[in-house]
Each structure stands twice: as structure tokens, then as C-alpha cells.
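Lab channel / #folding
Pinned by the channel admin:
"Please post every new chain as: sequence first, then the C-alpha cells as a reply. Keep commentary short and put observations after the output so the thread stays searchable."

First post following the new format, from NK:
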Amino acid sequence: MNSNNGREIFIEFIPMGTSVKVCAIDSLTGTEVSIVGPANAGQETLKQNAIKKLQYILSKK
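Reply from TO:
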């Protein structure tokens, strides 16, 4: 996935029973964040939450 500033963000979904762990990785810095959410929340919602967390962490650097 490409973000607005030309960076690529890699997304990984890891099912864990009734939950899903979602990892988001920034291609330029290698920064990785993860969230855990309910499996029935939908991939798009979980992906957007992981991207928001990654953007927050990157803005703190």
C-alpha cells in the first residue's frame, strides 16, 4: 500500500482465535506497529487503525 508521501506501508494480518493481530510496517524507516482487534471488525477497519497508529508513531520521531 502506498501512503500520500510516497512511502510504502506493508500490512500483515495474523489470525489469533477470535482476534486478529495487524502489523503495519513503514518501508523507509522499518518502523513496525501492531494492534489487536476482533476478527469480526473487518479487514479495512483493522488496517486503517494500524495505519493511524503507525502515522502517530512516525510523527513522534
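NK: The radius of gyration is 11 Å.
TO: also worth noting, Residues 9-60 form one domain.
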